[in-house]
Each structure stands twice: as C-alpha cells, then as structure tokens.
Write a structure and sequence with these properties.
The chain is an alpha/beta fold. It has 33 helices and 23 strands. Its EC number is 7.2.2.10.
Length: about 950
Amino acid sequence: MLPLYQVGTRVPGDAAQHENGIAPFNINPKTLADMVKDKSLESLNREGGVDQLTATLQSDISKGISGNESDLKERKRYFGSNNYKRRPTKNFFFFVLEALKSMTSIIVLVCAFISLGFDIYEHGLKQDWYEGVFQVVAVLLVVVFSATSRLLFSKRLEKLSYERNVFKVPVLRDGRLCKVFVFEVVVGDVVFFEVGDQIPADGLLLKGFSLKVEDFVETGERNTIVVTVGGNPFLLSGSNVIDGCGSMLVTSVGMNTGWGKMMSNMSREPDDRTPLQVQFHGIASMIRNVGLAVAMIVFLVLFFNSGETKLFNMFKTIAMFIDAAVAVAEVTIPEGLQLAATLTLFHFFQQMKKDNVMIRKVSACERVGEIAVICTNKTATLTVHEMKVAEIWPGRESISDHGDISVAGNALKLLKEGAILNTSLFVRGLISESDPEICSSPIEKQIIAWAVSENRPRVSEIKTNCEVIHAEAFDPEKKRSGVLIRKREEKEIHTHWKGAPELILAMCLNFYDRNGEVKFMTDEDRKQLEGIITGMANRGLQCIAFAHKRDAEDSVQIWDNLEETELTLLGFLGLENQCREGVREAVKLCKDAGVKVIMVTGDHLHTAIAVAKQCGILNPQEGENDTAVVEGEKFRSYSERERLEKSNEIKVIARSSSSDKSLLVQSMRQNLSRIAVIGHGIHDASALHEADLGIAMGIHGTEVAKDSSDMVILDGNFVSLVNAIRWGRSVYINIGKFIQFQLTINVAAFVLIFITAVSFGEVPLTAFQILWVNVIVDIVAALALFNAQPSDDLMLRGPPVNQSQLLMISTLMWINLSVQAFYQVIVLLTLLFKGTQVFGLTEKVTHTLVFNTFVLCQVFNLLNVRLMEKKKIFEGLRKSKMFIMVFMLIILVQVLTVEVMNKAAGTGKLDRKQWIACISLATGSWIMSLVVKWAHENST
C-alpha cells in the first residue's frame, strides 16, 4: 500500500523560520531525517533520547501535540507536509497527438489534404471542394472524441491511484485519540499501529510489543526487522507491521523520507492494460492491415484501368483514386474498438463507485465477471458488522447480561477484567469508558462494549493499577491473544488469554464454580464444558473463551513469553452471528449463476455450519459428516491430489488457518476455476495475491490486505461483490454488442465500396456520408451500447468462462454479422445497379437511396444487437435512456442530412414513397435478425 499524498501542496526544502526570524523548533528537519534514515542511535542519544526529542518537538507521549490549527500549520511550514512532488498530468493535447500518431490517421489526413488541394486548384475556393474538408473533419472528429474519452479515463485512473491509497491513521492530539488521513500526519504526532498497518511516516518507537515490520524502502527487497525501544527504535515510512503493536513519534514526513523521494519518481498512472484491451489492440491491428492492403489494391486496380495520359488529368485521377482507397480504409478500419473498451471500463468504474466497490487494478473490471468460485470470510462479510454478546458463561454457569454479579462471585469480575485487559486497545493505552467503540475488529469491539457496561469494573481504575509487561497479538494460526499484566497495588502478575474455546480449554487445569471458587477440572467437568461450547456453536454463536493465571510478583521470574499451562478457565462469551440483509438472496443468485461460494472461517465447526445454513451456502441436510464441510486441520492433511478432488465439493472450511485459503486457491486454479478471495487480515495477503481476483474489505481490512488486492469492498458487504460480478459480466456482453454492430457496418461498407470502386471507378458515398457512417460506427454506437444496464439474465446463464481465452467473436455473432452484411450488400448493390433503370431515378437520388437505406439498416441493427440473443428487441428499452437518445439522434441527423444539408452531404431530397421504400428495406435487417435468433434457439 502506497501512502496517500495531496496534489499541489508545498514541499519545503530547508527548515523554515518563523516570521520574527526565530525557528519555532530547536532542531533541524534534515537532522531528524538523517537520524532515522541512517538508524543512528548515536545521533538519537546526542539529541537526548526519545523522551527529550519528544519535548523538543513540543509533543507529549501521553497527550500528543496540541493539534490546533495554528500548531498544525506551523509544523507543516517548518517540517513539511506528508506529501511528495508529483509529475505533471497528461493534458488533452497529449492524447490528441497520441491519436494522430496512428498510421491510419496519418494516411487519411495526407490523402484528404491532397484531395482538398486538387479540388481548390480545379474549382476554386467558392466551388465544390467539400470532399477533402469532410475527410479531414471525419478524422479529426474521431481523434478529438477519442482523445476526450482517453483523457477522462486517464483522470479516472489518476483518481484511482489517489483513492486506492486512502487510509486513516490513529493519532493522539490534545490527549484524545482521533483518526486522520495519512497526508494530515505531522512531525510530533504520536501514531498508533498494529498488525497489518502501514507506517505513515518516519519515526521512533515509543512503546511496542512483539513488534516486527517489513521494511523494503532502502533495499528494495522485503526484510523482516524486529523493532524495539532500546535496540532498534527506528521506523521508516512505507513499512508494513507484520506482528505486534505499538506507538511511534513522527520525526519526518513527505519528501524528507526515503519513501516520499521514491514515490516522487514514480508515475501515478498505473500501466494495467486489461485482457480485453490487449485483444482489441490485436484485432484492430489485424483489421487495419487488411483494410490498408485492400485500399492499396483498389487504388492500383483503378489506376491501371484508367488509361489517362495527360499529366494534370492523371494527377486529378490519382487524387480521385486515392479518395476511393481512403474511403475503403475509413470504413474498414475499426477505430472505435479501443474507444468502446475505454468507455465501457470508465462506466464500470463509475458504477462500482456507486455500489461501494473501489477498483484498484483496471484488469479487475473484466476478471470479476469470470469468477466461478468465491472464497469468503464469515465475520462482517456474510454476517453483520455489529455483533452482540448473547450469552455469558462464567465457569459452567449461564447468566443474563444484567444478571446478579454475586451469582458468579469473583468469576464474572475477573471475566470482565480479562475482557478489558486482553485487548489491543488496553495494550496500547487507548481504552476508556467514554470511547469504547474505537476498535480493530467487530468481535473485540463488542467484547469491550460488554466489559465496560455499567462501568464494572471501572476502566480508569484498571488503567491506573495495571502495567502491561508483555503482549501477544491475536494470531490466526494460534487463534488466541494474551497479555501479561503487573498489578501495582496488589503486587501480582496476571496472565490473561482469550481465543478459540477448545484451545483455551486445553490450556486450563482449573475452573470457577458457581460460587466463584477455583476448582480442579476433572474429565467429567471438561466434557461438560466442551458440551457448553458445542451447544453455543449449534445455536450459531461465536464462542470466545477466557483464561487466567495469578502469581505473586516476587515469586516468579518474568519472561517474554506468556505461560500457557495450568491456567484457570474464567468462562465463555457467546456472540451472535446474524446474517447481513440480502446475503441469502445474493448467495442464491451466485448459485444460479454457476458461482460457488465457499466460507472459510476460524470459527468452531458447528458455528460455521449454522451460519452457512443461514446464508444458504449449505443446504439444510448438509452437516459435519458431509463432504461439503471440513475443518482446516483435515483440509491441510489432504494430499495435493485429494485436495484437487475434494475442493470441488467443499463449501465450508472451519477452524481454518492462514494457509488454507492459499491451498484452496492453488487447488481451484489447477481445476481451471477462476477464484476470488475475500480477505481482510495480513495473513490473507498471500491468498489475495495468488487468487485470480483479490478482494479486500474496506472497513476492517488491513493496509497490507488492501495492497495485495485487486478491488476493495468499501462497505464490507458480500452483496456488493455480487453486484460487481453482475456488472463484470456485462463488460464482455456490451463490448460484444459493439463488435457485432461495428463489424457488420465494416464488412457491408467495405464490400459495397470495393465493388463499386472497381466497377465504376468511384465511391457511391460522398466524404460527408462516409464521415456520418464513421461517426455512427466509432462514436454514436459506442455511446449507445457501452453503458447498458446488466440484467439478472446475465446471472442465470450458468457457469462463467474465462473470456480472455476465448475468441472475441462467438459463432452466433459470426452468423448474425454474416447474415446482416450479406442482406445489406445485396439490397444496396441492387439499388445502385438497377435503381436508375428500374425506378427511373436520377443518379444523385439513387445514391441518396443507397446512403439512406444503408444508414437506416444500421438503425435497426443497433436495436438487434442491444439484446443479441432475444427476439423481443424492445424489451426494457424504456430504462435505456442513453440508448433512446442516441437512437433518436441518429434518425434526426439522418433526416437533416437527406432533406436539409443536400449541398454539403451530396444528397438529393426524397419523397414520401422513397422514404417508405428505404424504411421497408431497412426493416428487413430486423427480420433477418429474428430469423437467425429463432434458428439459434431451436438449434440449442
């Protein structure tokens, strides 16, 4: 994950001085930057150590900086802001020049200017020299529109580069904990961090437990470094916390850090071409080469058949032949393919933003539509974020949340005390009665909320009386967390553990009875406690166990590792797992779409089964003895061959470890299934990276997980992912519609112009008419088809396929394309060759009939491709406002071209009968499409 920095903010060089000439801080920013960069303990000691340096920066370890506006402004002015210099953005003219570099554009423009020169020389400025002008306009119009769309898409990618690095940092200001964006962090801030966080700036460790970071700024390689207060307190911006937690004093920001300097030299716009764009580039290049080759053939045939000998007439004839060749090239080369892809992806970005999905990599726009398997977490993804403590079991007794504390005696008191002490918030010194909601996970949040309810015991008293000696953060492998506490007043050492109930229970030798007395745990007692755990799991509750050990301070030696044996069980908390609204329907929709949902959770087997049934992942009859459910330990014990065989049957993996998702991804990919992985923790990073589509949770996801992902679900809701799949499938469908529409026009126009150019030595369409056809093909159709709303039918077509490995044009598309092009060519050639003789029309009116019928055929063909596999082409048309607007625009401009702009367009006015004839012939395009669709339905 790269730090987020603002654009255009000032990055100072040397230390600034106050207006009165006196520096506001008695230290140089460069001195601080060099000290941390060089990891020099000598320089740190020279500054008086961390405590003295904190005072020099006018900060406080327990309160942070004042944080008022003037203080923040002064710190940014003197030390700089947490941003970096950015490269200038690409402007509109850059993309215009890029488009003009196209070989096709260069050839057409050169030929157009040659033609324009001959027209002006022969007819003068006041005569018919429109042909060359409209050829130039035809190219420039497509170039400008293409440049505009690419500019908008570039800006969207630039914004994506900005948005995908947005994260907030918990800092201490004026004694209060608050979260600020990373670019608002200033020198002197006290920043808190834990596993999965990214270090936002250079700084010094103030307090830390089991702290390890991944530091790759200096070497470019990932190195795991242990950070300690005494030995190595230096933290560098951009490092990832892979274990432990702590707090730091910020000493350097922005361009005064190695990360900032490195980022300033990097391009902000990601070079991430999608498989679709790669295919389009290949298709467009191939067709362009064919079009140019055929255009050259047309020119040579016309030239050698002309027999012209006079020099000027020869040049004039050559210019006319060049016009014909250019016309062939213009209508053949599919310039609109890349434009359609750009518009489709841009629209996908916009829609995903509305649906709470942030795309981090452009290729995810297409890959999400190919997903066949979703590997998802349970907590806060399938279930609601706000969990609640539903059952309380001090020892073997169940009490209500507001039950009499005397019933459980000392057990309940110690249970609440352990719930407060053994949390990341208490270890970092952040917990309080007034602000218990700031937490790193929904489970811990609810445990703390329950523990501080009615202020029993009071957090302030616990904080005053307890000192954290050592802590072990929650580890998905061990499925537990622990803390070693020294109680000052009682002069005792307390060890507190919490985690998976069966693991905590195995560590316990004693338990509390109903009266709160410690008793030895017999085999019968252990079975009874195991029954309590199973019963809670069967009720769909997430069970958390708490254990404790007390020792006199002077009777034990304090070690770095917490004791794990001879503990006393304090009891259990049961947190309810309520499915999110709409999840069951979303899972069903996935099943209908051929997308398998696998829940991978660290919860108890029975809890996982109960929740999976609530969500619809498991059928009511499936259970622990079914092949659809497996525990992580058993899954890991499978051989590679067994995993390949059983992975197709598995729907739930309970008591999973971090490696289970990676093993599942490897098995699914060997089975040629496209798999998406949902993760939020640092241990999910490997699976997210290996999956075809890595998806991080925006609410609880760590920065490491987000950095390894392709997209982020901002609201952490599984339903949002299903919406993304629906839109992802529509990407290929919309592009397929455009390809069929464009290639139909390309083929029909190519055959028509080629035959008439060779037969008559001229093109039946004027430059203006070719311009209008190109606008329809390259611009208008793209606008009509790129933003079609996806229907639920897309999710009911069975298992998806890897679209990037398929031919872009399906068999049905080839059939539709061939039939439509054949019909149009036959009708237009008949009008062209027989129109003057049979209907007694002038040549100009005949050519106008050909042009008008050709355009109207495309109008009906646009309706045909809107729903390529449906015979009811008007179904859902009212909802497609953009399509209706474009459809009406084409008809309006066509009427104006034929009836009003006769001189510019080279058309003759048509009477009512002729218009009816054109519409009737064009309607045949619709009829041919219905025949093809009917035949396809019957054949399948």
